[in-house]
Design a protein that fits this description.
By secondary structure, this protein is mainly alpha-helical. The protein has two domains: 9-139, Arc Repressor Mutant, subunit A (Orthogonal Bundle), CATH 1.10.10; 142-202, no CATH class. Helix content is 63%, strand content 6%. The protein has a three-stranded mixed β-sheet with strand order 1-3-2. Strand 2 (58-60) and strand 3 (66-70) form a beta hairpin. Helix 5 (80-102) packs across helix 7 and helix 10 (168-183) crosses helix 11. The N and C termini lie far apart (39 Å).
């Protein structure tokens, strides 16, 4: 079974930044569908009840030519942000794990699920977390996120006035509400980026007492 390389997250973030710049010149929100279909030449193929039957949103074929996505995510605008991140996550696998994926043998979603069960849990976690980190950084550029959060300083002060003992995770969730629409990602994805990027420390609202 394939094994993941232990790629430092800082390296993953740089590769996501380089990829974004090369594909859309840092345009935000990132046009992830266009990048996949027109720049990379990869088909996005909806699959009925994929999530219900397999518990996964999207899957990359082992020849790297197709991303299969649950049909409801593609067709229902309510799931737009989840759909966009699912695509970004698969791009993470393409950039970080393409050679390893091509070495796997599966020709259907069912075969992939069966194969996935054979993975060592720790190895699978590394593969998925690396793709998640790439996808998050790709869709939420650090510099733009920092700029946007800086503009919300009055809102942050209001948060502390109402909740002086507020912790970083709660504040990140508070800030993500609404701001996530700028990047066209879910509140959960944006909240995670605020914390992972250390944005709250960088703007001076948290020190060692709050960390």
């Amino acid at each position: 079974m394939i094994k993941p390389d232990r790629i430092p997250f800082n390296d993953i973030r740089k590769r996501a930044d380089d990829f974004r710049k090369s594909q859309c010149d840092n345009l935000c929100p990132v046009p992830i569908e266009d990048i996949i279909e027109f720049n990379l030449g990869i088909e996005i193929r909806p699959v009925a009840e994929m999530l219900k039957l397999t518990d996964i949103d999207a899957l990359l074929s082992n020849d790297l030519k197709v991303i299969f996505v649950d049909k409801s995510l593609v067709e229902n605008h309510r799931y737009l942000f989840r759909y966009r991140f699912a695509l970004a996550h698969e791009v993470g696998h393409i950039v970080l794990h393409s050679e390893k994926i091509k070495s796997l043998k599966f020709s259907s979603t069912e075969e992939w699920i069966s194969l996935r069960k054979k993975f060592n849990k720790d190895d699978l976690m590394w593969f998925e977390n690396q793709a998640m980190e790439f996808g998050g950084r790709l869709m939420v550029p650090h510099d733009q996120l920092l700029t946007n959060i800086m503009e919300l300083k009055p809102l942050i002060q209001k948060f502390f006035d109402s909740y002086p003992e507020g912790d970083p995770a709660t504040l990140a969730e508070y800030l993500s509400t609404g701001l996530n629409r700028y990047f066209e990602v879910s509140e959960e994805v944006l909240s995670r980026r605020i914390l992972k990027e250390g944005i709250l420390n960088k703007i001076g609202f948290y020190n060692s007492k709050h960390d």
